[in-house]
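Structure, all two chains, one model.
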Amino acid sequence: MRLGHVIGKVTLNATEQALRGGRFLLVQPFGKPQFGGAGMNPLAKGATVVVYDELGAGLGQTVGFTEGAEAAMPFSRPTPVDAYAAAIVERVFYHPPGPNPRA
Amino acid sequence: MQLARIDGVIIATACHPSMGRYRTVICQPLDEAGRDEGVPVLAVDPHGAALHSRVVYTTDGSATRELVGDPHSPLRNMVCAVVDPPI
């Protein structure tokens, strides 16, 4: 699972039957500084991911999303989803050894 | 499987029910010399590994689903071993 900031929403019109009614978020995955508390400005580098969301994460929240075959597991029917929001993260306790990243 | 160091935990109340049983820890992948390599990832930890301890986590989703006992769990990474500190 990876962490990411919710930076937007995606609305689909022509979709697969299985994706109809789904809620999709635009998530910018965390870089290492974001774990230490760096915010969304500037955004972490890297590809933005479209994540299927059933928890109702809002803009600016941190979500934990899984990718790959595991992302399609929560669905009863086969669904072409490969990024799934598994958690809305409230607190991140990040204390690597060495100097405190927030100090 | 990947060698990693535990650098923290996350707290998530709104989450998939399969995440409720075990802690979700922040794992910093390490290279062969033990230096940090890449961005931290999250894993389910049934062993209660201590902060900064070195662990081995697996990216095999089927083993994780078996651990949490939920065939519909989206979880993938699981801490499957805690590495003994070097003597």
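Residues 61-68 of chain B form the longest helix (8 residues).
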